[in-house]
């Protein structure tokens, strides 16, 4: 019996990370999912992440607590209002206040530590540099730099037994292309949530950057968002 290689998959409960999980499975990896409770106002996403991980049959799903609300500096981790727009065209060109300082660096560092513990050389993250809100830690050059660092920082990589690869298969895709890819893999997007500022019952606001980009992605495929 052939043993599948292990991979750590960052799973937020959103559209992109759920697609990434499906891609990791399709690629022949045994997925170990990690989600983060970091003080985000949209903590409802963690319920979705648990549901998605269970449905996908991951080898293990862990929830890591990192209280980034202590640091503030973002509309997602403080009392700063989440920006709302009428259409995707209204989304600004500057890095928005929904950017959480160093979030992906923190998340990838934890994921790297778990990967080394698991004997895994592969980490999947759903960053995207096309239909996104301008976050600096979603760019290819950032991921390349982190991967270089990871291979300098881990015992297994330095000893040559387990190099680290950061997989970002969505990084050059539009939201519409991501959705099309996920649907071809049987992803049930009704299980996911993307809103930055949902109501207490989980209902999406419909006007934050994440909601607008998600809606456009489904519309570009001639579909209605099943989670709407």
How would you characterize this protein structure?
This protein has 228 residues and is of the alpha/beta class. The chain has one domain: HUPs (Rossmann fold). 36% of the residues lie in helices and 11% in strands. The chain has seven helices and five strands; from the N terminus they run βαβαβαβααβαα. The chain has helices spanning 15-26, 44-56, 103-118, 140-153, 155-158, 175-184, 209-220; strands at 6-10, 30-37, 60-65, 122-124, 165-167. The termini are far apart. The mean pLDDT is 94.
Number of domains: 1
**Helical segment count:** 7
Q: What radius of gyration results from the CA coordinates? A: 17 Å
Structural class: alpha/beta
Give the name of the CATH architecture: 3-Layer(aba) Sandwich
Please give the CATH class.
Answer: Alpha Beta
What fraction, in percent, of the residue positions are helical?
A: 25-40%
Overall 3D shape: globular
What's the quaternary structure here?
single chain
Euclidean distance between termini CA atoms: 43 Å
Strand content: 5-15%
Biggest sheet overview: 5 strands, parallel
Number of DSSP strands?
5
Overall pLDDT confidence? 94
Q: CATH homologous superfamily name?
A: HUPs
Q: Identify the strand order in the major beta sheet.
A: 3-2-1-4-5
The CATH topology label is Rossmann fold
Flag low-confidence runs.
none
Reading the helices and strands in chain order gives: EHEHEHEHHEHH
């Amino acid at each position: 019996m052939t043993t599948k290689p292990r991979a750590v998959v960052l799973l937020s409960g959103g559209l992109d990370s759920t697609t990434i999980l499906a891609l990791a499975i399709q690629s022949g990896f045994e997925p170990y999912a990690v989600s983060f409770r970091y003080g985000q106002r949209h903590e409802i996403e963690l319920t979705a992440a648990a549901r998605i991980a269970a449905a996908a049959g991951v080898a293990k799903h862990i929830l890591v607590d990192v209280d980034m609300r202590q640091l503030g500096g973002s509309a997602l981790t403080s009392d700063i209002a989440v920006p709302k727009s009428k259409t995707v065209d209204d989304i600004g060109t500057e890095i928005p206040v929904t950017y959480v300082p160093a979030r992906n660096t923190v998340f990838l560092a934890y994921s790297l530590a778990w990967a080394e513990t698991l004997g895994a050389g592969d980490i999947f993250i759903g960053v995207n540099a096309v239909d996104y809100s301008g976050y600096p830690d979603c760019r290819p050059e950032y991921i390349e730099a982190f991967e270089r660092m990871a291979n300098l920082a881990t015992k297994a990589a330095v000893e040559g037994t387990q190099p680290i690869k950061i997989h970002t298969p969505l990084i050059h895709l539009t939201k519409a292309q991501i959705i099309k890819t996920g649907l071809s893999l049987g992803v049930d997007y009704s299980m996911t949530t993307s809103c930055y500022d949902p109501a207490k019952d989980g209902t999406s606001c419909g006007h934050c950057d994440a909601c607008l980009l998600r809606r456009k992605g489904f519309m570009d495929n001639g579909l209605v968002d099943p989670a709407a």
